[in-house]
Protein: Protein kinase domain-containing protein
Amino acid sequence: MSPLSLISALTINADTEEFSFRLDLSRSESFPSHRFSCVDDKFHADIRYSTYQVPQNAAHLQLKLGDCLGFGATGTVYSAHISNSLSDLSPPVPQELIVKFARLNHCRSLAREAWIYNCLDENQRLTGTVVPRCYGFFTSKLTESGVDYTTSSSSELPFELPWSIYEFDRDPHRDDILHDDFDDEVVRPQTWNPGQTITKDSSPWNLWTPDPDDPLVAVLLLEKGGQRYTDFDDRDPLVREDVELVCEDLEFAGIAHNDFRMPNLIRAPLATSVCRRHKRVHKWNIIDFNQAWPLDLSVENFPRDTNAVLNSRYRSGYFYGWQ
Structure:
């Protein structure tokens, strides 16, 4: 059974020196991407790239929020420990997880990242091998939850709340523009009629904008990995070999990451499974897929162009943060 089918409701309890809250969230649909094609360098509407079914009446997970592990302009990442018994779940859920909060104006980007995890899990079974296992995408209206909320924060930790809008955000009233958002450049079949299938065009996330009067909070629940890749790791030839194989797995899955940098490469979780392609347990995992998009390698006719798009550019200037 996929980890994405185990949990349908989530409660996060926080009681720290910076804030105290109880937040009840439910599973939400992720945000599908259009398919990119190297044949014409355009995005294509494709009914096969649609939303994934959200589990109903699955487990209700309760978490106690722990330390802040990282933050950026689009979100914050916390550790969390399970506080209720889920012994009957199979596969078992680790006692410590990662909660990735979107800032109030970046829920749409997190919904896209959640879809990429769905895609990697359902089509390639790569979650738990080259990317951490994902346990779902959850949302809640703050006005309905009774949680006090703050719409801005300082650029220095501690933040006022995990979902607070970044103080130096260039446009706090909108989410980032995604690569497939330019609708006039999207190719659609002449008989395009997805019916009841929810693709990017019909997803509620497609036209979503943050509402300061009725804010939405969104979180992604992930398996906890280890430390980020460092300059010390970069000097180890065995590390470099394993990372190159992990990048190869992602490329064979037809996923272009588009933001592969040192902070987005972490030590793999302890329960990482054997990679079917390389017959080994990879020591490294790739994270942060909010800028990613899919390709269908079965219809691509130009391998050189496809490789250029899918190439993660490991150990490039961009990877090191030089450009």
Summary: Residues 107-124 form the longest helix (18 residues). The radius of gyration is 19 Å. Residues 129 and 193 are 36 Å apart (CA to CA).
